[in-house]
Automatic annotation (TrEMBL):
This is Alpha/beta hydrolase. Signal peptide: none annotated. The keyword Membrane does not apply. The keyword Hydrolase applies. Residues 20-251 form the AB hydrolase-1 domain. Pfam families: Abhydrolase_1. Transmembrane segments: none annotated. InterPro entries: AB_hydrolase_1, AB_hydrolase_fold, AB_hydrolase_sf. Keywords: Hydrolase. PANTHER family: AB HYDROLASE SUPERFAMILY PROTEIN YCLE, MONOACYLGLYCEROL LIPASE. One of its GO terms (molecular function) is hydrolase activity.
Length: 271
């Protein structure tokens, strides 16, 4: 467990293992703790790096509005802190957006990139989803019902009803009733309002794996197909019957895709 200072704020991160660096970038409601089940497998042959963005987890909270640009600089400061000239970026949802924006600005620091459930732009439709989230922050159960069921596929949510009930109790009684957390969620959500790297994506030449999910109702499949069209060095994989929280629904597949893409050497066929 370590901290570094960024613009007068304390930023929390964790590192495990040795080898090719993999930085896991959180979704909007996540923190370093969210990746606990993946630590052992990801650090077996790689250096695993976990990071809490500003307003997440154990990193300091902000007191004013901001944009995702500041999270890009937090990530750059982390690489500088660890003296890394290159790293592999793995981002899901909000973390994938930050990864894209980082690659646009600091491409030379990125080896390969894996993007789960990510979009190139916050559309009016997606922005209004965020507005709905933020309008429900004053009631923990309202916030849960507005934000959580939709991030899972219906099959997973129904099949794992006991697990989901336990999460509902945990989140509504210990997380969504905490004012500092909810204020941070409002700022985090609004920080993505102006996310748009659409015109810059053709400039990215990093090997990139884009993972789309059939039952993603937050960043649906056309969003990832657009990413694939714009990034010429990308590959696209679609996970059937999976929702926005793909790493929870398909942890083995999530791990296999990330580690395989990051660690596999290039293969060329001579025809």
């Amino acid at each position: 467990m370590s901290y570094f200072e960024f613009m007068g704020k304390q930023i929390y991160y964790e590192t495990y293992g040795q080898g090719k660096p993999i930085v896991l970038l959180n979704g909007i409601m996540m923190s370093t703790l969210s990746w606990k089940p993946f630590i052992e497998v990801f650090s077996k042959e790689n250096q695993l790096i976990l990071l809490d963005f500003l307003d997440q987890g154990r990193s300091d909270k902000m007191d004013t509005a901001y944009t995702q640009d500041i999270q890009i600089e937090v990530l750059k400061a982390l690489l500088d802190e660890l003296k890394l000239n290159k790293a592999n970026l793995v981002g899901i949802s909000y973390g994938g957006e930050v990864a894209l924006e980082f690659a646009v600005k600091y491409e030379k620091y990125v080896d390969r990139m894996v993007l789960f459930n990510t979009t190139a732009k916050t559309s009016p439709w997606l922005k209004d989803i965020g507005v709905a989230w933020n309008r429900s922050v004053n009631d923990p159960l309202d916030y849960y019902c507005t934000t959580i069921p939709v991030i899972y596929s219906p099959k997973f949510y129904n099949d794992k009803s006991e697990w989901m009930d336990n999460r509902k109790t945990l989140l509504t009684e210990k997380v969504f009733n905490q004012k500092p957390f909810m204020e941070a969620m409002i700022r985090l959500t609004e920080s993505a309002d102006n996310h748009d790297v659409t015109e810059k994506l053709p400039n990215i030449k990093i090997p990139t794996l884009i993972v789309s999910c059939e039952n993603d109702y937050i960043t649906p499949m056309p969003e990832q197909r657009k990413l694939h069209e714009l990034i010429s060095t990308s590959e696209l994989v679609v996970l059937p019957g999976t929702g926005h929280a793909s790493m929870y629904e398909k942890p083995l597949l999530f791990s296999s895709l990330v580690l395989g893409f990051v660690n596999c050497q290039s293969v060329e066929f001579i025809v």
